[in-house]
Amino acid sequence: MVPPVLEVRDLTKRYGATRHAAQDTRGERAGAGLGSLLSNQVAAVVIVLVGLFVVDPTLAALDESVAGFTLSGLGAAISGADGDSSELLDPVIAGLVWALYALLFVTLAAIRTARRDI
């Protein structure tokens, strides 16, 4: 009996939950880093919302070469969204870029926490 050939769509359906879990983990790390960086919770929430709903789409609209590196572009690439794939990065590369964003926030928070007078 010949084994069935898996298409990319089958793999996306099969491993889609794993991708979303990994993306959530990177998002949580970035959120923890940003939350540690800012001492005011209200300011942190407002900055995140303005960044996601104003800055992110504006950057993507102004320069299409940047669209793949915005948070929404990275999320779409990691989740395997259909659409204009010319702007999207490879899912593995997008995951690495997202992890670098998270590492940046965590590193800045660690530096600020070390210098903070407790």
In words, what does this structure look like?
- This protein has one domain (30-112).
- The protein is 73% helix and 0% strand.
- It contains 4 helices and no strands.
- Helix 3 crosses helix 4.
- The chain is elongated and about 50 Å long.
What keywords describe this structure?
73% helix; single chain; 118 residues
Structural class: mainly alpha
**Mean pLDDT, as a whole number?**
76
Overall spatial form: elongated
Give the helices and strands as they follow along the chain: HHHH
Short summary of the structure?
This protein has 118 residues and is mostly helical. 73% of the residues lie in helices and 0% in strands. It has helices spanning 8-37, 41-62, 71-79, 91-115.
Topology of helices and strands:
Blueprint: H1 8-37, H2 41-62, H3 71-79, H4 91-115
